[in-house]
Amino acid sequence: MYIETRTRSILKAISWRILATLTTMTLVYAFFRRLDLAAAVGVLEAIIKMVVYFGHERVWNRVKFGKKEIPSFVVWFTGLPLSGKTTIADGVYERLKKDGIKIQRLDSKDVRSLFPETGYTREERNRHIKRVGHLVSILEKQGISSVASFISPYKESRDFVRKNVRNFVEVYVKASVDTCRKRDKNGMYEKAIKGEIKNFTGISDVYEEPQNPDIVVDTEKLSINEAIDKVYNYVKDKFLKNGRI
Amino acid sequence: MYIETRTRSILKAISWRILATLTTMTLVYAFFRRLDLAAAVGVLEAIIKMVVYFGHERVWNRVKFGKKEIPSFVVWFTGLPLSGKTTIADGVYERLKKDGIKIQRLDSKDVRSLFPETGYTREERNRHIKRVGHLVSILEKQGISSVASFISPYKESRDFVRKNVRNFVEVYVKASVDTCRKRDKNGMYEKAIKGEIKNFTGISDVYEEPQNPDIVVDTEKLSINEAIDKVYNYVKDKFLKNGRI
Predict the structure, then answer these.
(1) What is the DSSP string of B193-225?
(2) Are B165 and B140 in contact (CB under 8 A)?
(3) Any domain includes B198
(4) Chain A closest CA to B62's CA: distance in Å?
(5) Among A62, A93, A108, where does a domain finish?
(6) Does ipTM top 0.90?
(7) CA A186 to CA A184: how far, in whole Å?
(8) Kind and range of the H or E run holding B51
(9) Cα torsion angle, B65, A11, A22, B53, sign
(10) How many domains does chain A have?
(11) Are residues B86 and B148 in the same domain?
(12) Which of B:31-60 have CB within 8 Å of A?
């Protein structure tokens, strides 16, 4: 959080007044060739303009026009393992950050590596997602948007997040189990099929498809960049309309 | 998050230029009684001043002087049940908020009521505090300070929070078990002694006293207002020195 100290504002006002008054005096002198009168105009101008400027600022302080609130929001990516959530979310985050939005990135792997004891039962997964929902709702209230990517397989905890957030955008990153399995270079799906990983979403645990997502991104049909564009443009249209930051 | 639109800035610049130039023209006319020359000075002034103003702004943009970063911080209250944590933390929060600091209040009862399944074993308590620590560390990085009050009885999780936060202020709210028990109008201590509440800090669960707290607030000796003052002044001296916001 940055502030401008009063000293800076005062110095800036003085340096501006010197520059501005010298300009006026030069002009008056150029027209009338009277140094004494140019100086008199200058002194009077300096005094009067400071009063006028102060009044001008006070009046504008009461004018609401042109002050715009940019709402904070939560873009929530849900989908099967390897559906493409993290990659697309990273891209959307980078573009929003470049736009000057105050934004936080949250990804399943980062949060889980910080809390390795978080398990994969239905209860533990629901709790995990609800806690992340609590976090993004506090951030949203403080004016900070989030881009979150979590498998978040259950409707219950996704609904909890939606309920606790004012501006919630649910992005369903869609791809069939077969497609995700083909993309999987680390053999997670194979391990899950063999039973070496338990509660693996799509194989040994259910993925409850979102019924009314705000956006569906079909990664079997769209390229990564097209998917990023689709989500970014939706967010931009919905929350950042009427000009740039 | 608020922004000033470009339209507002443009309108403000125009309204100021009209006021300022009319002032100059009036002055010139008052001195020289020549309306034609007053008008000529005015037109030239309007054009030249806009260029000079732009240059003035650009130069000041490169000047660091008088730009101050207010660091974000975490004020963490720890202590026995009924030691006075919540009351003092509320007071400190209100005063920091009044100072214009971006700040979040977090209290045990609010977070626990949102996640009623959180238990009271050592493991569950440590996890609970670590998760709150994660939250305040994200807030701190986003420029938002926190005032948190949690019994947080174990050194392990308090140290986790300290490690994950840049500016951590540990406030030990000190009162003996006897004093806290006397203050307890809801009979929690009595229930704990009878065994009706399990893992009750101070009775059936250990409270690991902070070894190097940044502040000790002894609520047997200080009034509530004195305690609030002590913490507030410490935070102010440490993070908000050199003038007001």
Answers:
(1) HHTSSSS-BTTTB-----SS-SEEEETTTS-HH
(2) yes
(3) yes
(4) 13
(5) A62
(6) no
(7) 6
(8) helix B35-61
(9) positive
(10) 2
(11) yes
(12) 31-32, 37, 40-41, 44-45, 48-49, 52-53, 56, 60
Phi, psi (degrees; rounded to nearest 5) at B31: -80, -40
Query: Which tens digits make up the pLDDT trace of A42-91?
Result: 888 888 887 887 788 778 777 777 777 789 999 999 999 999 999 999 99
B20 vs A41, A49, A131: nearest CB: A49
Structural domain span for residue A24: 6-62
- Look at A27 and B41 and tell me if their CB atoms are within 8 Å: yes
Please give the span between the terminal C-alpha atoms of chain A, in angstroms, as a whole number. 18
Indicate the residue type of A147. Answer: V
Would residue A186 count as lying in a domain? Answer: yes
pTM: 0.81
Instruction: Let me know whether B113 and B161 are in one domain.
Output: yes
d(CA A77, CA A83): 10
Q: Which of B69, B130, B135 sits opposite A2 (nearest CB)?
A: B69
CB B193 within 8 A of CB B203: yes
Closest CA to B177 of B198, B207, B157: B207
- The answer to whether position B67 is within a domain reads no
Tell whether A226 is covered by a domain.
yes
Cα A52 to Cα A19, A87, B63: the distances in Å are 17, 55, 27
